[in-house]
Amino acid sequence: MTARLARLRGPNNEGLLLAVIVLVVIAMSLASPAFFTAGTFFALVRSSMVPLIFALGVLLVLISGGVDVSFPAIAIFAAYTTVTLFMDGSGGTALVIFAVAMLIGAGLGMLNGVVIARFRLPTLIVTLGTQGIFKGVLIAYIGSAYISAGDLPSAITEASDRHLVDVAGGGYLHFLIVPVVVIVLLVAAMLKWTVFGRSIYAIGGDTEAARRVGIRVVRTQVWLYMLVGALAAFGGVVYVILGKNANPQSLVGTELDIIAAVVLGGASIFGGRGSVGGTVLGVVLVQLINNNLVLVGIPSTWQRAAVGVLLLLGVSIQAFAATRGRSRPVAVQKEVAA
Amino acid sequence: MTVTATPVLEVRDIVKTYGGVHALDGVSLSLAPGEVHCLAGENGSGKSTLIKIISGVERADSGAITIDGTTHGHLTPNEAIRSGVQVIYQDFSLFPNLSAAENIAMLSELAERRVLSSRSRIRAAAQRVVDDLGLSLDLDAEVERLSVADRQLIAICRALVNDAKVLIMDEPTTALTYSEVQRLFVIVRRLQQRGVAIVFVSHKLDEVLAISQRLTVLRNGRVVESGDASGYTRRAVSKAMTGRDVSETRLVNDVAPDAPQLLEVEHLSRAGGFDDVSFALRAGEILGITGLLGSGRSEIAEAVFGINPADSGRILVQGKPRRIASIHDAVDAGIGYVPEDRLTQGLFLDIPIAENMVAASLDAYRTRFGLLDRRRIRRSIADLFGRLRIQAPNSSAVVRSLSGGNAQRVVLAKWLDRKPAILLLNGPTVGVDVGSKEEIVTILREQAAAGMGIVVISDDIPELVSCCHRILIIHDGHVVAELAGDDIDADEIQRRMAA
Amino acid sequence: MKHRRLAGGILVGTMAMALVACSSVDEAEPSDGASDDSSSAPVEDGAYVTVVKATGIGWFDRMEVGVDEWAAETGLDARQEGPAEATNEGQVSIIQDLIAQKPVAITVVPNDLAGLESVLAQAREAGIIVVSHEAVGIENVDIDIEAFENKAYGAQIMENLGECTGGTGQYVQMVGRLTNGSHSEWIQGAYDLQQAEFPDMVRVEDPIESEENEEVAYNKAKEILAKYPDIAGFQGSAGTDVVGIARAVEEAGKSDSVCVMGTSIPSVGGSYLESGAIDKIFFWDPALAGKAQLAIARILADGGTIEEGTDLGIPGYESLVKLAGADNAFAGNAGVAVDLSNVADYDF
């Protein structure tokens, strides 16, 4: 009985999260007849795409035992730079734009990785620093102007309007959901079925032990941060396509919300734990709440408080579930010291 | 057993200096296939440095290492692994977040330079090693959820997954109980039969002499003794390690017949921990509590100290019933506790020795204006530093820089500074070398002689025998025997513990 | 252990951020800053500094054009600064740094009125003239100058919106931040006018906050469209609100049936004016507003006063009106409504 319950709950409380999502959906359906529709579902999918891509990057870094706050800066840097490169109509299909942006992203990620792995510096501090650098360089040297729909490369505006499913008056499913889903599956497969993926878990579990069994920690970390940079850049281009504008002021500042969603999805901020499934659920839950408060009639003045309370609750449950059953040295040390 | 084959590992004239200090000064060692070779030495003798050099983690200044006929001037960790040298570290170096199977097979997956990881291949590789050694392990369990003994076995399995030729075991028995140690020895003998050469590093000389064929003792970076293990006694090895005669005889002070009862524990029970435990402790007495890991010996101490209070029963301190529901209550009642894992529970590692010493007793140093009396604090620190013979440049060194024995002394100092009437010590000499062990026991004797009541919880039986007036034996949460005076005998205790 | 290390990391990280923030402010104006800071600079030659909500936004880039023009015209040292993000904390720290540099005047477009009061009071105590913009009701400034009377401007938007919807139907209003004073007054002025002149229109939700974020505006507008399929009008306040709304409306295929109007600028809202998803945008020229602030600061520095009818010599600010309810607030008459027909006249 308890074994079956444990299996339902999942290794990172994915089951619990799914149950909460179902509960929220039921509650919102009761609160508003307009909620349970294809339109709401498509809108949820659409608004989850960019946070989900970012969340995958955050997940990888968290599993490896780090914290990355520079990914929104990498995302907008890569996307905005690529847009300005192709703005004069010098061709460039959507594919080329994605490729160029992801190369830029991987390059910026490599900078993070090299500093972190070579000099063994704390990831949070390194990425806080690079976040400022990336954003500063972007604004100062690449451009600070808002690029509106009319000035975007035509490949991007065309991509903006490509829908996979279009329900007249009931919303649409954007075609970018296809590459997003593919990337989600690829990252999940990588974490599960490649030695690289397992090495990331190992490094997050115990870096010294990883070194001792012969994992090339420096090389793995550099590749990891390059991958995360490329993911962030992909998310940045998706963001530009969906928003039909390129605004260098956007994205930076959203990093903590994404990290919160990933932690909500069961990843441990101390490293070594986390799953793609849980991350998807975490992001969906946050977006579900974030994007339907008007619909279910929560007054604007209360919306941010509501999101905050729900996040805090979710993350606390996760943290509690994760620490339960582990040893208690920390508490004891505090008490003795008091 | 006779060992005549050509050496599988040969270390010649290794010299290693750190900042001008000779950590190793011309050390040589040779290892035949199927030999268990004990490497003994006190902390700082150069054992760890030698292990690091053999495993490629550190580079020797001069000398050569020959593995299986190939001589390496400078060995990298990966070369060492590929040559068949495996180290089982004292901390096991496992991944707490991964399954047992993955921990075991990670090494071979990496060594084979695989790109894709296959759960079934990993499972099979792990299963093969586990079956080979005739173990039963839950391979799908996360290592974090396994017992220390199982983790040790996983560390061994991992070392063997890639056909190790030389296995270095660094303090493998520190966290194991008597019966687990016996099980480990069975495995070690099985490996030996398969021709694996084993370097066995341990503080516990009984074990060393029981399992090893040959023995090398290091002191101050030099080999001081080397030879057939059968030619040595405990005492001789101790002497070689410390350079002096270490007494291990039973030595207990007389307790005055009218010494007051300091602590009376009556019918103490806690669900899932222990049941109906009663004992008493008089001033000047040292009481030993022993039992296998999981017998409830630590839980009793934790209940008396309020960490996990008892469900029922009574605790009297100096004749008065006290409600002990928290650590705070216990401290108020005059009880001190030196926890089992001194490194995580008892000390602030990155803070100077001096501050650690007074951390628990700052309240006692307040002047009447509520300020700290710095002069009195300095006096106490100087006094404790000298009295406990802590070996550190000075009292402002951080605790992390200390050896196990010295760190344990700082924990002791911290509690002695509170001047508790009753001091509970859980495994006071775990991970401490012979010389330091003796000194810690001496300190305990001195404190008892001065009127303190001391409870030592330990599974180091020779240690208990050497200093306790009485010994309680716990089995499955119950007190199964109480030995006193001449009844105290190591073999008898061993027998009762396992019963 | 790990906990402690993390906490330490966060602390150090925050400090690093603060350092980055400081240095970026210092470097914003390398040559001017350096020469003015030196104690030898005479007071009458001191700097006029405009602090905007955030740098790198089209609107404030345009304001900087005005600031630079004014500097060129008058020969005085004027420059513009702003935090990288539109936060109150960012503005406070910039103003704190400025106080130490002792400029003649600080003109400021606050993110949060209440949040700036105390630091502006410090600036004035230090003898610095403070002029604000988009900040009616703020206390610790010499003069607040508005491009127009806010409620009148809101009413102007609603007049157009009501006309577009035919005086009937449901509508919602969006603000950048619920704490933003000007945005609140625009929607209040609009709401009052709707109540008086378009009684058949219904505001179906309390004002919605877009967090000055286009993506948020888009998502909220989508929710509104789902909840109120018959919605007839949207009024936006932050410059990107109408763009986000327009995108949602366009996707819903309701560009013709839904009127989208509100504050924006041509470079941001222009493409949706062309597509028809936005019907009209309203704004005032930030370059002129920037100049007006500086002109007022200069009059005050020369010992003059600002009164009803004062002429700043800047288009739209030829005859200031005193705003009711505050003794330090004046307004010009500089609001403009732009639709597809005249959008080409404005190149920012």
Please characterize this protein's 3D structure.
The complex is a heterotrimer of chains A (338), B (499) and C (348). Chain A has 15 helices and 2 strands. Chain A is mainly α and 338 residues long. A two-stranded antiparallel sheet of chain A has the order 1-2. Mean pLDDT of chain A is 86; it is low at 325-338. By secondary structure, chain B is an alpha/beta fold. Chain B has 2 domains: 9-242, P-loop containing nucleotide triphosphate hydrolases (Rossmann fold, 3-Layer(aba) Sandwich); 261-498, P-loop containing nucleotide triphosphate hydrolases (Rossmann fold, 3-Layer(aba) Sandwich). In chain B, helix 3 (100-111) packs across helix 4 and helix 3 (100-111) packs parallel to helix 5. Chain B is globular and about 70 Å long. Chain C has 348 residues and is of the alpha/beta class. Chain C folds into 2 domains: 42-147 and 286-332, Rossmann fold, CATH 3.40.50; 150-283, Rossmann fold, CATH 3.40.50. Chain C is built from 11 helices and 14 strands. Chain C has helices spanning 2-28, 30-37, 58-74, 88-101, 113-125, 150-165, 181-197, 214-227, 241-251, 266-275, 286-301, and strands spanning 48-51, 78-81, 105-108, 129-133, 143-146, 169-175, 201-203, 208-209, 231-236, 259-263, 280-284, 321-322, 329-331, 335-338. Chain C is elongated. The interface between A and C is large, with 51 and 53 residues.
Question: What's this, in brief?
Answer:
The complex is a heterotrimer of chains A (338), B (499) and C (348). Chain B is an alpha/beta fold and 499 residues long.
Number of helices of chain C: 11
Shape of chain A: globular
The total beta strand count of chain C reads 14
Q: What number of structural domains do the residues of chain C give? A: 2
Beta-strand residue percentage of chain C? 15-25%
- Measured between the Cα atoms of the first and last residue of chain C, the distance is 54 Å
* Most extensive interface: A-C, 51 and 53 residues
Total number of helices of chain A: 15
The helix content of chain C, as a percent range, equals: 40-55%
CATH architectural label of chain A: Orthogonal Bundle
Q: Which architecture name of the largest domain in chain C does CATH use?
A: 3-Layer(aba) Sandwich
Please identify the structural class of chain C as seen in this structure. alpha/beta
Which class do the helix and strand fractions of chain A yield?
Answer: mainly alpha
Distance between the termini of chain A: 42 Å
Question: SSE string of chain A, helix = H, strand = E?
Answer: HHHHHHHEEHHHHHHHH
Which H/E pattern describes the elements of chain C? Answer: HHEHEHEHEEHEHEEHEHEHEHEEE
Predict the CATH topology of the largest domain in chain C: Rossmann fold
In CATH, the topology of chain A is named ABC transporter involved in vitamin B12 uptake, BtuC
